[in-house]
Specification:
- The chain has 17 helices and 8 strands.
- By secondary structure, it is of the alpha/beta class.
- The strands form 2 sheets. Strands 7-1-6-5-8 form a 5-stranded mixed beta sheet.
- α8 runs antiparallel to α17, α11 runs antiparallel to α16 and α13 crosses α14.
- The longest helix has 35 residues.
- The termini are far apart.
- It binds iron/sulfur cluster.
- Iron/sulfur cluster binds next to loops.
- One of its GO terms (molecular function) is methyltransferase activity.
- This is Flagellin lysine-N-methylase.
Length: 404
């Protein structure tokens, strides 16, 4: 039987824009090279490739398997040695696509196998992916496709021990809720938090998941209940304090991405926060934050589809909420990613007096590349989230809701 692949709409149309890319992926990463890819390039007698391979390809003395048999050293400008003057890959040009190592041939694609279905998506560390997937005003939908032979090989099984049907029920409910445009996006996120909290308190059985979904549907049918969630107020002081703490973690300890550092710098300068390690929040910063929230909200009125698509894609790609110890912890991850992206956009509003679609693309891509796509950064960020006692729903609400 032919396998089915499920993809967010737009995934199959994605094309790398190569030299026109504003943040080429062939820089700053540590690139693991699989044994086969390593041999194809390091043993090549091609006169262009041979000297470059000597400089760039190194055997990894700490390899744990054929997957990380070697690694790639970047040049003095922190770029890949194999890029030509137009930033096209010379391995691809001289030896053909089949000579690319696994890492380079897959990026920016992600594959998972869940049961009989392959799920394919793209990472937002690539700016063209952000434009392709997140700028769909009608919302992100999903479609079926047929995988190529190499896509079958790339797909790794995930989610052992969680029944597929149950996982799908939860994901479908979460995505439908996040796309309920009659409610503000913050309210939809808060409702997702309530849903996650309820799931966390129940055993992982089909009956209890059905009960939680049914309870949520009953609550959503009551306009007064939904209205009460819409009226939840955010706490700006809590938000700024946590933004500073978490952004400090991402920039000072971990990030090497110049574009991301520049975005964080606009947050600092625009809101006059002072050094991120300084816990004091002045009245000036508080006032600027509240004024800039209003500018952000104006942008959000017509462009909330961008962050909606972001969280919908997150739920799909991360197999939410079964990507963490508990559904509520998984929600904490979504909340922090969503809030830090919003915080950086509010910072840009303070710095530039406006927010644009290009700003949203820049923030989401650079944040993903520097933090969410970087295992070390994300681990440290998660540790900070834990220390910040963010497992309480009331705290998360005060943190998430943007007033204005
Ligand atoms: S980041 Fe994306 S668009 Fe840019 S070079 Fe890499 S794959 Fe191409």
């Amino acid at each position: 039987m032919e396998k089915i692949m499920l993809v967010p709409k737009g995934t199959e149309q994605f094309r790398c824009i190569g030299a026109a890319c504003e943040d080429h992926c062939c820089n700053t990463w540590r690139v693991d090279i699989d044994r086969v890819g390593f041999m194809k390039v390091s043993t090549s007698s091609n006169p262009v490739i041979k000297p470059l391979a000597k400089k760039a390809y190194k055997i990894n003395s700490k390899a744990t398997s054929d997957v990380n048999y070697g690694s790639m050293k970047m040049n003095d400008k922190n770029e890949c040695h194999f890029l030509d003057e137009n930033k096209w890959c010379q391995i691809h040009k001289e030896l053909g696509e089949s000579a690319l190592c696994n890492t380079c041939s897959i990026y920016p694609r992600i594959y998972r196998k869940i049961g009989n279905v392959i799920e394919k998506s793209l990472t937002f560390s690539c700016p063209e992916v952000v434009r392709t997937l997140l700028l769909q005003q009608e919302g992100l939908s999903f479609e079926e496709a047929y995988p190529q032979a190499n896509e079958l090989i790339q797909s790794k099984a995930t989610l052992s021990g969680i029944p597929e049907e149950l996982m799908w029920k939860v994901r479908i409910f979460a995505i439908t809720l996040l796309q309920e445009r009659g409610l503000s996006l913050d309210t939809r996120i808060l409702l997702l938090g309530i849903f996650s909290d309820l799931l966390s308190k129940e055993p992982l059985t089909e009956q209890s998941v059905e009960n939680v979904i049914s309870l949520m549907n009953q609550r959503l049918a009551h306009s007064q209940y939904v209205q009460a969630i819409e009226e939840v107020k955010g706490n700006e002081l809590v938000q700024i304090q946590l933004h500073k703490e978490l952004l400090r973690t991402t920039v000072e300890e971990l990030s090497f991405n110049v574009r991301y550092v520049e975005v964080v710098n606009q947050f600092i300068v625009g809101l006059q926060t002072g050094p991120l390690e300084d816990k004091v929040v002045t009245e000036t910063t508080l006032q600027k934050y509240m004024a800039s929230q209003k500018i952000y909200q104006q942008f959000n009125e017509t462009h909330s589809y961008i962050l909606e698509n972001y969280v919908v894609h997150y739920v799909f790609t991360n197999v939410f909420p079964y990507n963490s110890q508990t559904p509520l912890q998984a929600f904490g991850d979504i909340a922090v990613n969503y809030q830090l992206i919003k915080a950086l956009l509010i910072g840009m509003a303070a710095h530039n007096g406006k927010v644009t679609v290009d700003d949203a693309v820049l923030v989401i891509q650079s944040y993903t590349k520097a933090v969410a796509h970087n295992n070390k950064s994300y681990k440290t960020l998660r540790q900070k989230i834990k220390e910040s006692n963010m497992e309480s729903l009331a705290f998360l609400f005060a943190y998430i809701k943007t007033n204005g």
